[in-house]
Amino acid sequence: MSRRGFLEQIRQGGVSLSPELAAAFAAVPREAFVPDGFQRRDGTWAKPSDADFLELIYKDDVLVTKVDGRTPISSSSQPSLMAMMIEALDVRPGHRVLEIGAGTGYNAALLASLGAEVVSVDVQPDVAGKAREALKAAKIDGVRVEHGDGYAGSAGDRFDRVIVTVGIAGLSPRWRAEVVVAPVEHAGTHPVLAVRDRAGTVVTPSGFMTAAGPLTAAHPFPAPAAPGTLAEFTDYEGPCFDPPLEPLTYRDLWYAAGVWNRRTTLAAVPHREQNALIILDLTRTGGAVVLPDGSVLAGGAEAAAWAAEAAALRDRWLGAGRPPMRAWRVGLAPAGDPEAPILVPSSWELTR
Known about the structure:
Elements: H1 3-11, H2 19-27, E1 38-39, E2 45-46, H3 53-57, E3 63-68, E4 71-76, H4 79-89, E5 96-100, H5 106-113, E6 117-122, H6 125-137, E7 143-147, E8 161-164, E9 179-183, E10 192-196, E11 199-204, E12 234-237, H7 247-260, E13 264-269, E14 273-280, E15 287-290, E16 296-299, H8 303-319, E17 328-337, E18 340-350
Parallel strand pairs: 5-6, 5-8, 6-7, 8-9
Antiparallel strand pairs: 1-2, 3-4, 9-10, 10-11, 11-17, 12-16, 13-14, 14-15, 15-16, 17-18
Helix pairs in contact: 2-5, 7-8
């Protein structure tokens, strides 16, 4: 696929690219940042010598570059998601940018191509080392890669912007910057927030690998329900959306449900939906699910009560005029370990 086709893929779905960011995507060779290859969707490993290598690289898709068993632990994010986060960051030439999570180094290269001076921090020493090598091979100047815990940032430095490329529960108060763009845990997923002065707005839904250490010390929502752990779920209410909600609109409902009920998380419902909104009960084996068509399923010892709660959340969202997740203004407050506090979402207000 050509670089022109790559930009067209990134723009699909309404992603807006400034001329400067479009030029950065067109100029920075993504293949230089995956010299050892990456995992295909089918689990096989794509190598630079493979005939489809460049075609896969220049698709709007995540490239998993490191796995622990079957669990991905490092990657190059989906380019359209990178684009939305970088645009929300509002980077200007001369800005100093702190990046938490170096990944392959490709995101930092894009930022440097916009004229930013970047310090990228990664907790995995081998990942940091490979990102450093890739940046050198691609002849990208203006990026320093450090090995360390992202919570601490870069010792003694102050930045204009902070961008986070791993899922976190809250922001470090040590990130001293005017704007922070980060995927912050909410209802089992990591919607991206753009934060100024302890108040944020939602940029886009997303799913990220989860950070380690203090950045995930506070868990206001239950963890996603593991496959195979749920009781048998049965129908409680039939469909009420015709046609079913589009994926982004379903995420809007999901986000609102997480605001109004902190038991909201993600579940793979057998034979139904792999990524479904669930109100998980206290045993973590039951509760109720709202599917994209509005139908409600429930299971466990108190299935009827959870089904009623799930239906009420769905109807509350409808009554509020189906607010998109971007309509929420999010307030952040200190939480987590008192010795290493983080700023977590603590209040929500609909702005329209």
